[in-house]
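I have a small job for you when you get a moment. Can you supply me with one protein entry, sequence and fold together? It will help me judge whether the discrete encoding reads sensibly. Write everything out right here, beneath this request:
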Amino acid sequence: MERETVRVGNESGLMGRFSQNIGHVMGEVYQFCNLPINFADYQAGRASTSGVDHGGIPDWILIDDQHGIRAVGEGKTFWTKKLAETKRLPLAEWLGQLARYMDDLHLRYGFYTTYSVTVFLRRASDTTFEVSPPILYSTLSSEKGGKDGVSVRECFLYLAKLANSDSYIYPTRKGKSLTDGSLGQRERQSERLKSLMAKMNLGER
């Protein structure tokens, strides 16, 4: 993207820059490509599920021309969340909030952005979320001479194409157990029980 000249010092201001340089620009690109997808705030969307309490409101959604929610996004500041440098465990904790939104809304696709860096999520199974490599704000498209792959705007174009397909829905929901640790705890208890039964020469009955 273009070199940034506006200075911001809080999340609201940073997401305003995201809205201007991603949301607004990509909205025009989607129109040009005949994709009935737009960025919106959560209140403008119509969820396919009702009565779900996920304890918060997503910062961004992608909606179709009927205001149906097709993908969800969360924004944080780049000075508190260093996406390009963090290790796996802290990243998983940061993405937990987004994973809950995706789970509650039965969505397969999402994104997590600090404006300077963005990662994209795809739900691969009930308990598995695939995460893209970090996409830097400064990465140039190969069409403009970039050597590092795709630009963040190209990624959002691809996300819109996925959101416009039938694959955007994820059919099942795990609820709070997805991120509160109880799901993993039950799985570990089950493995320990199986191990103990094996040592005692007991089979499952």
